[in-house]
Amino acid sequence: MTIQQTLLLNQKLKTTADKDLFSYYARPLTSKLLETMELAKHFYHGEGDYLFYEKDQKIHRVLDLTGGYGANILGHRNPHILAKVQEWHDKGSPSLTQGSIRQEAGKLAKRISDTLHQETGEGPWITTFSNSGTEAVEAALKHCLIYFGHKLIEVEQEIEKEMNVALIKIKRSHENIQAKFVRNLRVELTEKISDLKMNEERKSYFIHQINNALDIDELVSLIRDINKKQLSQRPGFLALEKGYHGKTMGSLGLTFNEGFRAPFYLGGDDNKTTKFISQYIDQLSFEKIIEDSKQDLIFISETPNGVGWAKHSFSLLAGAFVEPIQGEAGVLPVNTPFLALLKKFSLQEDFLLVFDEIQAGMYRTGKMASGTHTDITPDIYTFSKSLGGGIAKIAATSINNRKYVEDFGFLHTSTFSDDYFSSSVALEVLNVLQGENSPLTEGLKTADFMVARLEWLRSKYPNIIKEIRGKGMMLAIEFYDIFKEMGFEFKTICDSNMQGYMMASVLLNHENIRMSPSLSNNLTLRIAPSLYFTIIQVEELIQALDNMGRALNERNVAYFLSSIYPGEAVTNEMTDALKTEVTGERPISVFLCHLIDEAHIKKVTKSLKGVQGERLLRKLALPKDLAEFEIYHAQTIVDNNGVEMDVVMLGIPVTSEELKKTFTSRNKYKVVQKVQNAVDFAKEIGASTVGLGQFTSIVSGNGLYLNSRGMNLTTGNAYTISLTVQSAIRSAEEKNIDLKNSTVALIGAAGNIMSVATSLMADHVGKVIMLHHSPLESSLKYQEATKRILDEIAASKADSKVVEIVSKHWKDRDLLKFLNNEEVKEVFVASADITQIKEADMVLCGASASNGFLSLDLFKQNAVVVDVAVPPSIKPEMIAKIESERPDLTYHLGGVASIPQDQSLNFIVFPLGHNECYACMAETFSLGFSGKKNFLNIGDLSKDIVMEVQDISKSVGFTLGKVKTKSSL
């Protein structure tokens, strides 16, 4: 079938629903990443080093440098391998015949043994087959453990033999001499016990119990008990920093990247079985690690002078795992002196050395095992990936017969291992690689040529390309992080650690080259084509990389962004660079923030203004899963007392809507954890104060879900309420409203923010109308809120009609009786009747509804309306009509703060003018200037807290500036 025929058939079979099946049922988050970065291609055909996909009725041919993460050593659909598959089919060979002699598996195991013997001079090698690389590592790990266990059994038996010889000598002595032996042994142990390698609790127990051992039998019984405890300790492993060995539980325990381990309780202190070391460790430090792994067994032994104490040291290390070339770390070769030292210690302490050859093996570097280039031979090799020729799922764990434990082959089994199909395919792979027409020689020549061309490219772009690494057909190209210099548009990419995927997207969509970043080094692109790769294809790659290098050099924003926004009007404009440097020389206050909506994104990203809104937001939805808060802006400001402080904006490229969606979903914990991580980050950089800006306050339960880590932590709501009230009063005064005789209505007064605002407004006006969606008689929440408000008003020292009347009548605290008092009704009303706002000169709105619920005809002529609800209480279509239909109204969203000393926040993300900042920011910075410690302004507020924060802000120089006209959420 031709490619064109295959395409037509594929189109007939494909439905719209099929397109989303993988995303929905198989890999949801991975699919989001692929779709966001325009990497979600359906490759319907492969041939050699090329893949094919269809888009817009056009066939695209892609040069594949990912190579199945190194599995396609012979390319896609190698004819020799396909012929073997056909032969298997034609023969009618059975699939699974467990419990029988499987000849193909035997042939394959011998071939591997012979090949390893040829390369290492050691062997034979016993091979256990499995289905994947991580299973091969699991098998190696389990063999290390069973070998360790057998070793300790032998040690225990030898000690028992030595002790029995001594015991016989003692027991055949006279009773007086036996007693003398016991006394001497007890004294000798007391003198030597401090030098034993065992934990202090066990030493203490030993010395205590030995004093109770009155005869030799009790003493020997105690020794056996102590040794049993020593031998039952959990063994450990050595593994390399930056190493990767797979993602099953055992393999994860050996994998360095804590991001992979921690979710499965294998991170940090929880991973007590593995000690991660650097390949650049010095010998003395390495020797200390080995020494620290040792424990002592103690026994009595015959000596020339009679019987005495003896000890036997053993290491708790069961094995050491090393990738000779660390693939996921960015193709980093491990240095030979380190491997030699590791080999020395493995022989000295008798633990097993394992070389993980899953990526680097199978002739990718010219040899079956890449580690043999170093002339150092481990006890175990693991192979997979290319062993299956890109067709079969097979892995091999090959163990030197000298160290092989026969029980292992009986204890460790697998349903799908040793099968005829995968064994025969793997044999054919080796036939091709080792045969007369092997592509190995020419492939390695091409690899050398490719390295030379890549080095030429690096010399052309020395500030773009950091390093070329690897050997043979396992290479990597590492880039400097240029994207962080390319404006705010790339903040999402950098904060999500997706720079490598951005480069992969550009190469795939603009250059028809498929490359992938390393899992643990996203600025490194791997190069792992087949051994059939040609010089012509090398030049295809070089041309593509040259194009991308030039675009990076020129900071060509459009070249990169157009790959993830195909067909959109992306312009080649770069947003001003963010100022993110924090020196740590001054006090620090941190404010958490995020993007607001489509309009906000387009305001701060010059190149994306022409991108369709829905598509823009969909692309930005991914960071809510991947991105963490990072420094978006840092600058120094000074208060009215001359104190300098660094203010730091920790931002995340997630919109309010996405935060809200996550907060109301079952994944609420994720966004709360991100906010906590931001608080932790603030602590790390030395902040004294953290402000929960925008939705970070809402999604963290007004901060109640968070650990402040000993810093000041505030929602900023106190000063927000203060400026809301101040702005309402100022607006009323500007309209010549008689404040002392005015009426204020507060919508949503049962809520915390509006209830505090009610108490504050009562100090200034002639009448208060509280409004709640439910009648007072039927709402316990409304009743309790009203009582709290009346308590605060009654305690006020302000000179207002409301304070005067409430203080006079609110004594027995009988709420319904109080509200029915005729004199009280003149100054205080608690109602559910929304039409009563018609009486109000000022209206403060704090009750949210999805589309607003207030219309313009409800408001009194010439009223002041301050709407702090999110979303606004007034219907959106009505807000747009205020200027034309109700020009008499003064409508705004509260107050904006003025910064001390006429300073400004030069932060492009927020639409702030000269000398402006939001109230929640001002509260954060004021607390930072104040020098307060562990001040928690989270959860519900009270009038007293608002007044305290108001005084603090005033003392350092923050005051009410202009009114707020645009939402900061």
TrEMBL record:
The keyword Transferase applies. It comes from the Bacteria. Its cofactor is pyridoxal 5'-phosphate. Keywords: Aminotransferase, Pyridoxal phosphate, Transferase. SUPFAM superfamilies: NAD(P)-binding Rossmann-fold domains, PLP-dependent transferases. InterPro entries: Aminotrans_3 (IPR005814), Aminotrans_3_PPA_site (IPR049704), Class-III_PLP-dep_AT (IPR050103), NAD(P)-bd_dom_sf (IPR036291), PyrdxlP-dep_Trfase (IPR015424), PyrdxlP-dep_Trfase_major (IPR015421), PyrdxlP-dep_Trfase_small (IPR015422). The keyword Transferase applies. GO terms for molecular function: identical protein binding; pyridoxal phosphate binding; transaminase activity. PANTHER family: ACETYLORNITHINE AMINOTRANSFERASE, MITOCHONDRIAL, AMINOTRANSFERASE CLASS III. This is Aminotransferase class III-fold pyridoxal phosphate-dependent enzyme. It comes from Peredibacter starrii. The lineage of its organism: Bacteria, Pseudomonadati, Bdellovibrionota, Bacteriovoracia, Bacteriovoracales.
